[in-house]
Amino acid sequence: MHGQDIAIPTGRQIDIPIEAAATAATRVSTMGWPFWAKRRLEGLRLVATDADWVVGAGDEVCGRIADLLLLTTGRSVVMPRLSGGGVGKLWMRLSYRNLVRGGMVASSDRDRASCDAASQIVGGNGALIVE
C-alpha cells in the first residue's frame, strides 16, 4: 500500500496481483485497529469489478479490487476511480470526517453539519455535485 501512496499521485502504476489484493482486502475489512474499515464503511457494500469479491451491506461502491483495498486501508485517493450508488455517501462521509479532524466542525454542530452538507454535496442519484 505504501508504494501505491507514491505511485498514484505521481501518475505511475504498480500492479497488485488480484488474488493477493482480494485476500488483503478481506483481512483489512474484518479487522479493527489500525484501519477500522468495517466501522468506517458501515452501510456500504464494496463490490470488486475484476474479482469475485464483495463485502458489506448497503449502497454499492464498485471498483477494481486494488482500489477497494486502498479504500479499506483509509486511502481516499481512489475515490475518482469508484462507481455505484454509495459513492456519494462515501464522498460525504470522508469529506465530513476530514472537516471534523481539521476542527472545521464544532462537536456540538457535528450532527447538524452532516445533515446540512448531505443536501449540498450529494444529488438524489448519489452523484457528487460540484458547484
Task: Give a brief outline of the structure.
By secondary structure, the protein is mostly helical. It is built from six helices and three strands; from the N terminus they run H-H-H-E-E-E-H-H-H.
Your description of this structure?
With 131 residues, the protein is mainly alpha-helical. The chain has six helices and three strands; from the N terminus they run αααβββααα. Strands 2-1-3 form a three-stranded mixed beta sheet. It is globular, with a radius of gyration of 15 Å.
Helix and strand string, N-terminal first?
Answer: HHHEEEHHH
> Measured on Cα atoms, how large is the radius of gyration?
15 Å
CA(first)-CA(last) distance: 33 Å
Strand count? 3
Main pleated-sheet profile: 3 strands, mixed
User: Helical region count?
Assistant: 6
Query: Which strands sit side by side, in order, in the main sheet?
Result: 2-1-3
The 3D shape can be described as globular
Helix coverage percent of residues?
40-55%
Strand content: 5-15%
In terms of topology, how is this protein built?
Layout: H1 2-7, H2 18-30, H3 37-40, E1 44-48, E2 54-56, E3 59-63, H4 65-72, H5 87-101, H6 110-121
Parallel strand pairs: 1-3
Antiparallel strand pairs: 1-2
Descriptive tags:
6 helices; 131 residues; mainly alpha; 44% helix; three-stranded mixed β-sheet; disordered C terminus; 3 strands
